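User: Second chain of the day. Same drill as before.
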Amino acid sequence: MKSPEGQAIERTTTVVIGAGHAGLAASCFLSDRSIDHIVLERGEVANSWRHERWDSLRLLTPNWQSRLPGLRYEGPDPDGYMTMGEVIEFIEHFAKVSGAPIRTGVNVTSVRHADDGYHVTTSHGVVHSRTVVIASGACSQPAVPQLRDAVPASVGQVTPFSYRNPAQLPDGGVLVVGASATGVQLAAELRQSGRPVTLSVGEHVRLPRTYRGRDVLWWMDASGVWDQRYDEIEDLIRARRLPSPQLAGTPERATLDLNVLASMGVELVGRWAAVRDGRALFSGGLRNVFSLADLKMERLLDTFDEWAGTEGDSAEVGPPERFPATRVPESTRLHLDLGSGEIRTIVWATGFRPDYRWLDVPVVNPKGQLNHEGGAVDRPGLYALGLPVLRRRKSTFICGIEDDARAVIGRLAGYLAVRR
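Assistant: Same format as last time:
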């Protein structure tokens, strides 16, 4: 069999795109069901962890939550947080013990429907498969707003993909845009390096690192919040767009919120709304933004308390806690002259998005997101893993992939069974 371009076509039942934790989990369950498959990876195993993360980053989840099918963290620090090197080692080890049929350095350039399946065109040839699992990740590229085009050339611009550590930036002030996990971590690191830091704050999710003596993600897990299914969530679209919570994985298990940053000397301003005559214009209303985040945190803590009092064991945790409201600055700047030299670098911590430019199947909506129902994409034989709230609230975390992969590969196997 040959492609229209005359290339010889390899055949397999399933192609998995991506050899991160999601793609490897898919491979594990495909092997368990004796479904022949290959895993294609554009770079190396755990490629994004190797090349698209900053030096000091640690997982947000405690080590005891680090698990993949048949593999659990067994090290000496269960309450710690893996460094990037440890994450890479963990995923590499899983790839070896699972025996995943991985082909590294293979770039997928096109997936299109053909015959009874799909033609997957790669830098190493064409593969025909009856099914495809898209596990290329939700964070394939930074989501940077068009505002960047109006920034003066004298101001450097970086994203979390290109940022590694403060030493790579020029001396002088830094404007960090975005106050999710990435934004608050980078703002803290840059401020600790001695630089003046301004943080542009929009919608965010505030959480304490620990609550009642336990890691807050222990509460998410134990109370069942993390296991809430996609078809039980009232506003699924909004849930899938929520920014990552303001957390950091530090040896001290310290909370990192806006109050902490303000105490460090980070200047808080509103959401960056526009650029006019070389000036960044920030929205007002920080008080409302802070109040909303505080209210949502309080409601979540109420949920934890209710669970502890009815289904959990209150004797295993400390007494209920409440935290000071986010402090509103006495005065807040509404504009900043980008040409004054005060800001030398902008760090765009404005989120990430997937990259489906190679997907020649009409399953991507105008916002660049896959149309899928619990991981079953809107075309027969096409599936996805590793996306926000794919099947549960914990879907994008390493500890959430096992349940998702088992279910999605189960659906794939059922599809193959009825089409024999």
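The chain has a mean pLDDT of 95.

User: Great, on to the next one.
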